[in-house]
Amino acid sequence: MKKQLGFGIVILLCLIGIFVFNFSFAKSDLKLNPIEMKKSNMGILNEKLTFKNVMKTTNEVLVGRVIGLDELNESRKVYNVAVEDDILGETQNEVLVYVGEELLEQGSKYVFFLQPLSSTVYEKDFYVQHPEFIIKIGDNGELSRLANAYEFTYEKPFTDEKYNQLSTLKSFIKKNFKQNVSENQSVIQYKNKEQLLQQSDLVMEILINEIDDDRGISIVHFVVLKKYKGDKDDFDILLPTNQIKQGNKYLIFLKENEDGSPTLTTRNGSLIEVGTSQYNDTIKLINK
């Protein structure tokens, strides 16, 4: 009898645990009002658009005001955002935010849900905002979600009215979410060419025979002319479009990512046009 009672208690505790887990899981989500957003670009979520899924792919949540426009690689438009409040994570006083198209209004204030992006194919670090979840802040702290990117019309984001206020949403995020750790590593700039050579997995001269540009970065098809370090040659690489020309020859320094795909080792000094004084000095160092 005692064994049966003990077994029954264990089952009961398990059921309570499952209930509490499911309740906590549901509690950390907020139901969104159904909005079929009208815009020209694709979103960045691979799952259904829910608040929980947005937060799963968010590293920083902040309140910021759009104060200007900038360009990466002389082609890809990004917004200058003055940070007024870090809700989740910590950022600088001003950040660059990429959305994909002109979805933000100059001078307006938003709740940003951001992923950091640090890459050697861009001259600056920046953040990526979820384009399908643009939350604007009104003068009284009322929140509205962009519904039509062509006419800049907005609707209430959440079914529960109390979360359509900045103060309430801010408290909810702080209570229910922790900052996601970004897998994107910061770009390292080495002090000299000796360090650059040592830290690179591949060093080679290439002839670029095809450039496929996508707003400032290009998939480059090339012929390897000479290898100085490493023995890999059957791959495509991404390079900044404003630093290359089809038909030109370049000395490149590459580092392999965890998946084996090569990328420029650093932002500066990893892509050198053949025949320049910088090229001549670097070749002397390599051939020492």
| Straight-line N-to-C gap | 85 Å
Described by the principal axes of the CA atoms, the overall outline is elongated
Query: Runs with pLDDT <50, length 5+?
Result: 1-26
Largest sheet: 6 strands, antiparallel
The helix count comes to: 5
The residue fraction in helices comes out at: 10-25%
Q: Could you tell me the number of beta strands?
A: 14
Oligomer: single chain
Q: Rounded to an integer, what's the Rg over CA atoms?
A: 25 Å
Overall CATH architecture of the largest domain: Beta Barrel
Mean pLDDT: 86
**Helix-strand string:** HHEEEEEEEEHHEEEEEEH
CATH class of the largest domain: Mainly Beta
What number of domains? Answer: 2
Strand content: 25-35%
Structural class: alpha+beta
Concise summary:
This protein has 288 residues and is of the alpha+beta class. It has helices spanning 2-27, 51-56, 166-176, 193-199, 277-286, and strands at 60-72, 76-88, 94-98, 109-117, 126-129, 135-137, 143-148, 153-155, 202-214, 217-229, 237-240, 249-256, 262-264, 271-273.
